[in-house]
Specification:
Rossmann fold; Helicase, Ruva Protein, domain 3; alpha/beta; two-stranded antiparallel sheet; elongated; 2 domains; single chain; about 20% strand; seven-stranded mixed beta sheet; about 290 residues
C-alpha cells in the first residue's frame, strides 16, 4: 500500500475507518514520510533484526520498519487501530501485531514467543517507536529497569523529555529520569521533529533520541533499588538542600549530615547538582548507615 505518512492518506484513513484520534492516548499521527525514513535509518536496521514498535497508530513508521527489518512486533492498545492495521498491513508476513498495554509487557517474553532460538537463547532486538506522550516517562522507566534484551532504542519523545534524558548536573532539566537513562544507556539526540508533521498537531515539538544499552553502568552500586530510592528522594523536593530532601529515607538529621559529609558532598548542596558518581558514593554510605541501626 502507499505510505500512510502523508496528511492526505492519514485523513482518508481516519475518515474511512471512522476513527477519532484520542488525546488521552497521545494519538498524534506522523504525516511526514521523510521523518519516518530518518527514524528508520537511525535504527540501522537489517534483514536479521527483530524490532519492537510501541504504539504503531496507523502504521506510518511500521511500514518503513517492515521494509528494512526481518521481523516487526508492533504493540498497540487501541482496538480500533488494531483493526485498521490488520487490514492495511495484511500482506506483510514479517509483522506480528500484538494487542496490549506496553507498560505491562515483558518484551523479552514477547520476542521469545515469536523468535525463540536453539538452546533457549533469547535473541537481542531493537526498539523503535513514536512513544505516546501520555505515558512517556513511566514507559521509559519500564524499558530501562526491566533490563530487557534491547541493544538499541530509537524513540521519538516530546522535546522536553528528550532534553531531560540527556541533561547534566546543575541544569534545570536534570532529574531522576536523567540519572536513570544515563545509568542504563548511552543517550544521544538524533534530530528535532517539529509539531507541524503530526495530525492532530500537538502543542510541543519532539526529539528523536537513540539509547544504546551499556554493557556495564558508569558506576558500580551494590543495590540498584536503594540507589534509585536515594536519587528519587533527592529530586522529589528540588528546592530543599540535600540533607533535608533525604529525610524520607528514615534516617535522622545527624545521620544524614554525617553520610553526606562522608561522601565528600557539601550538605548545603541540592540534589540536582549531584552527578551519578556522587549518588553512587552517597547511596553506599547511606545504606551502611541504615544497616548499622
Amino acid at each position: 500500500m502507499n505510505s500512510v505518512a502523508t496528511p492526505g492518506k492519514t485523513l482518508a484513513l481516519i475518515r474511512e475507518k471512522g476513527l477519532v484520534p484520542r488525546k488521552s492516548r497521545g494519538q498524534n499521527f506522523l504525516v511526514d514520510s521523510n521523518i519516518v525514513r530518518k527514524i528508520a535509518v537511525a535504527a540501522g536496521l537489517g534483514p536479521d533484526d527483530i524490532v519492537i514498535e510501541i504504539g504503531p497508530g496507523l502504521g506510518a513508521l511500521t511500514q518503513e520498519l517492515l521494509k528494512q527489518a526481518g521481523m516487526v512486533i508492533a504493540v498497540e492498545i487501541d482496538g480500533d487501530l488494531i483493526s485498521a492495521l490488520e487490514e492495511n498491513l495484511k500482506d506483510k508476513d514479517n509483522l506480528r501485531l500484538v494487542a496490549g498495554d506496553a507498560l505491562k509487557i515483558n518484551f523479552d517474553e514477547l520476542v521469545a514467543r515469536y523468535k525463540g532460538e536453539e538452546g533457549g537463547r533469547l535473541p537481542t532486538y531493537k526498539l523503535v517507536a513514536n512513544l505516546p506522550y501520555y505515558i512517556t516517562t513511566p514507559l521509559l522507566m519500564h524499558l530501562l529497569t526491566g533490563k530487557f534484551n534491547i541493544t538499541e532504542s530509537v524513540l521519538m519523545v516530546q522535546a522536553e523529555v528528550g532534553y531531560r534524558m540527556l541533561a547534566l548536573p546543575g541544569s534545570k532539566d536534570y532529574g531522576a529520569l536523567s540519572v536513570a537513562v544515563q545509568y542504563y544507556t548511552e543517550p544521544a539526540i538524533i534530530f528535532k521533529v517539529p509539531r507541524t508533521v503530526f495530525y492532530p498537531r500537538p502543542e510541543v515539538d519532539s526529539l528523536v533520541v537513540k539509547l544504546t544499552r551499556r554493557t556495564d553502568p558508569p558506576v558500580q552500586v551494590e543495590d540498584e533499588e536503594f540507589f534509585f530510592r536515594v536519587v528519587r528522594a533527592a529530586f522529589n523536593q528540588r528546592r530543599k538542600t540535600l540533607v533535608n530532601a533525604l529525610g524520607s529515607l528514615g534516617l535522622d538529621r545527624p545521620q544524614l549530615l554525617n553520610a553526606v559529609m562522608a561522601a565528600g558532598i557539601d550538605p548545603r548542596r541540592r540534589g540536582e547538582t549531584l552527578s551519578i558518581e556522587d549518588f553512587a558514593v552517597l547511596s553506599k554510605i547511606l545504606q551502611q548507615q541504615i544497616e548499622r541501626r
